[in-house]
Write a sequence for this structure.
């Protein structure tokens, strides 16, 4: 790590305008995370247009703030109203809500912000150390290695397919087919453009995302008018007690490493990392029976891991140009809009920018800690906002966001089409995240495969004779097999649970 | 969840067939060896196989029961469909009527669908939110939203 570069990065980040925007991003992030129905992915996608006019480091800093804040914010509603504000906080519900029922919401919330900060900040530190090293290795990568990397990332689709592998894979293939729309990356031949000039560059990324992740939620929200659980009065506590910290610190450290590692695996995101860390905390606990009934280390494990995951997910995004999870996939899109192409060359050409991203990430986590501690009273109140106000606002931001990318009404139509597709997919249990992942990894897989085969004159063995690409392909196969086995087990268990408790209304 | 799975399976198959058929007519690439049709054809093959799996599972009655069946008589489904159709209308009118009018009307409708009935407050909120977002984008971010006949 180049210390002077990092210091320079902090110099940029601590300029009042940049610092203010990171703070603004963090506050909006926590808010977005805390509001059920607004995820981190949606938040970043919806707020990207607000960063268009800003200088690069300010815009990116604000988005990093949203990212870190939202992952923490999800835990607030998980603990208080049993609804994870973001998927990343799903594991936090398991022990956070029982603690709330025992009247210990303040204790759970303070542990959540503490663990989130330790996890998030350490994840950012690991990112600062690891990314330059990885980018150095990646400079040697050529087409076969990138193909291996894309395939490895795509193999993760199985683990994020929700409750049906077949549907997850269908969504993945569908997403990759969408990514082939537009001019063919090698020969420039227009594919599946249906005569629309606007589709020559492929369906614009941000409008597609906004459709799939934000507009679809609007339709869903109109359909299901669910009543939110009322928030009980919270006895406030700024920091966890010394006893709680002593009890949980080992779990927090372990979960931080688990979270960062899983984040760094292309494709796997903070929801998975939280569950894995929670499982590990339960497995290694002397009293596993207390988990699920209000165990404070359960909250610590989930929150340390999902926030550590943010730093982890940035590692492959910055150093390889392959996003670690759904949110970094959107961030990648935002960086490209700002004229920065993540990947090993970013470290060569824009090293100052890279280090201000590192500094920005650490600052965002620090601000998240302060905002979390001192703003909790405000956030507790805000999660009770009526959905009949929230949904129209999401709608309007979606439309404006889709439009403002290219000042194009075509893109608004595109977002609406994907919103409708997303709504029906969600309705019938087709997961949307595989589409997002394949939109980014599909073109990478195609162009690197074709480039590799030009080099080898059509000989496919080039993919298996170079050590790194072989290792990545083997990893992909291993991950496919283990993920399939795990998923099938999960599906079986869910089927059994369904049979046990026949339909409970809705 | 039998019917939707059958429907989705058939739709997937149709898309696969369409892609393979049109990719067949893409030009071959003698220099690059793998032409523009190679990747889409592989993907469509994969989509086809898994759509068949989904279809076969559904026909053998192995589909998982849907947690939330799509019932055309359900008022919730009506609301979703109305909001969906209205968005299409919104897109059509956006250019001629302009952002402010179309959005304010749509927001009002959306709140009505969400079961609000305090009309005055609804009108005030829809106009205020629309103007606020219009203002932020037009003035602060320099992104001009369609002004319609007002502009």
């Amino acid at each position: 790590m180049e210390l002077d570069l990092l210091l320079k990065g902090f110099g940029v980040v601590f300029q009042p305008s940049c610092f203010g925007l990171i703070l603004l991003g963090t506050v909006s992030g926590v808010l977005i995370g805390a509001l059920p129905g607004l995820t981190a992915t949606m938040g970043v996608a919806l707020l990207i247009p607000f960063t268009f006019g800003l200088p690069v480091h300010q815009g990116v800093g604000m988005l990093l703030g949203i990212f870190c804040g939202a992952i923490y914010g999800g835990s607030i509603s998980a603990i208080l109203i049993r609804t994870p504000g973001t998927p990343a906080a799903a594991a936090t519900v398991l022990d956070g809500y029982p603690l709330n029922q025992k009247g210990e919401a303040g204790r759970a919330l303070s542990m959540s912000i503490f663990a989130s900060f330790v996890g998030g900040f350490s994840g950012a530190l690991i990112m600062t150390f690891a990314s330059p090293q990885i980018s150095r290795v990646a400079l040697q990568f050529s087409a076969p290695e990138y193909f291996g990397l894309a395939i490895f990332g795509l193999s993760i689709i199985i683990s994020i397919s929700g409750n049906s592998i077949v549907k997850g894979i269908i969504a993945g293939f569908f997403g990759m087919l969408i990514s082939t729309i537009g001019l063919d990356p090698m020969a420039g031949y227009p594919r599946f453009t249906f005569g629309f000039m606007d589709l020559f560059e492929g369906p614009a990324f941000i409008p597609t995302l906004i459709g799939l992740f934000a507009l679809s939620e609007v339709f869903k929200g109109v359909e299901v008018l669910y009543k939110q659980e009322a928030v009980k009065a919270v006895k406030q506590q700024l920091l966890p007690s010394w006893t709680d910290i002593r009890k949980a610190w080992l779990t927090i450290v372990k979960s931080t490493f688990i979270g960062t590692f899983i984040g760094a695996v292309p494709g796997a995101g903070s929801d998975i990392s939280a569950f894995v860390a929670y499982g590990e905390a339960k497995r290694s606990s002397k009293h596993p029976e207390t988990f699920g009934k209000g165990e404070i280390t359960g909250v610590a494990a989930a929150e340390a891991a999902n926030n550590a995951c943010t730093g982890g997910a940035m590692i492959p995004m910055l150093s390889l140009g392959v996003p670690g999870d759904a949110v970094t996939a959107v961030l990648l899109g935002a960086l490209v809009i700002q004229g920065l192409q993540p990947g090993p060359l970013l470290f060569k050409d824009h090293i100052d920018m890279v280090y201000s991203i590192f500094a920005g990430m650490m600052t965002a986590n620090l601000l998240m800690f302060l905002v979390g501690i001192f703003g909790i009273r405000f956030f507790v109140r805000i999660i009770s906002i009526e959905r009949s106000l929230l949904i129209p606002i999401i709608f309007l931001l979606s439309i404006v966001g889709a439009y403002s990318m290219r000042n194009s009404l075509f893109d608004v139509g595109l977002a609406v089409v994907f919103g409708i597709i997303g709504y029906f997919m969600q309705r019938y249990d087709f997961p949307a995240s595989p589409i997002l992942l394949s939109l980014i990894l599909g073109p990478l897989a195609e162009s690197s495969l074709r480039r590799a085969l030009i080099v080898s004159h059509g000989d496919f063995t080039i993919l298996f004779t170079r050590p790194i690409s072989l290792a990545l392909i083997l990893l992909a196969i291993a991950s496919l097999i283990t993920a399939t086995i795990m998923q099938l087990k999960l599906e079986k268990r869910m089927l059994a649970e369904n049979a046990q408790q026949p339909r409970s209304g809705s | 969840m039998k019917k939707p799975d059958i429907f989705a399976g058939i739709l997937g198959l149709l898309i696969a067939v369409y892609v393979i058929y049109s990719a067949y007519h893409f030009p071959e690439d003698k220099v690059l060896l793998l032409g523009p049709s190679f990747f889409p054809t592989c993907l469509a093959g994969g989509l086809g196989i898994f759509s068949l799996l989904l279809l076969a599972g559904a026909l053998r009655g192995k589909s998982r029961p849907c947690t939330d069946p799509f019932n055309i008589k359900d008022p919730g489904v009506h609301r979703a469909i109305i909001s969906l159709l209205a968005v299409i209308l919104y897109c059509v009118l956006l250019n001629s009527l302009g952002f402010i009018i179309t959005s304010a009307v749509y927001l009002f409708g959306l709140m009505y669908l969400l079961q609000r009935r305090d009309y005055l407050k609804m009108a005030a909120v829809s106009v205020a939110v629309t103007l606020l977002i219009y203002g932020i984008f037009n003035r602060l971010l320099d992104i001009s939203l369609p002004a319609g006949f007002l502009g």
User: Anything to note?
Assistant: Chain B touches chain A through 70 residues (CB under 8 Å). Chain B has a mean pLDDT of 85. Residues 134 and 145 of chain B are 7 Å apart (CA to CA).
